[in-house]
Amino acid sequence: MAADGDIKVHEATYHKVIAMLKWGAVGCFVIAFTVIWLISGK
Questions:
Q1: How much is the average pLDDT of 17-34?
Q2: Keywords for this entry (predicted)?
Q3: pLDDT-derived band of residue 42, with 50, 70 and 90 as boundaries?
């Protein structure tokens, strides 16, 4: 069984990864929107 300290470290890493994925999704949306806007020529 994992020690209590190990669980806290893994939980902190999990939260950091989830935050990174959320910001990555926002970044991808912004890039995709910019590319579509540039292609449309408006």
A1: 98
A2: Membrane, Transmembrane, Transmembrane helix
A3: low
The contacts found for 26-34 with CB under 8 angstroms, 24 or more apart, are: none
Above 90 in pLDDT, residue 26? yes
Distance CA 20, CA 28 (A): 12
Place of tokens 């893994």: 10
Cα–Cα dist 34/2, whole Å: 46
Token pair recorded at residue 6: 């190990």
Residue type at 21 in one-letter notation: L
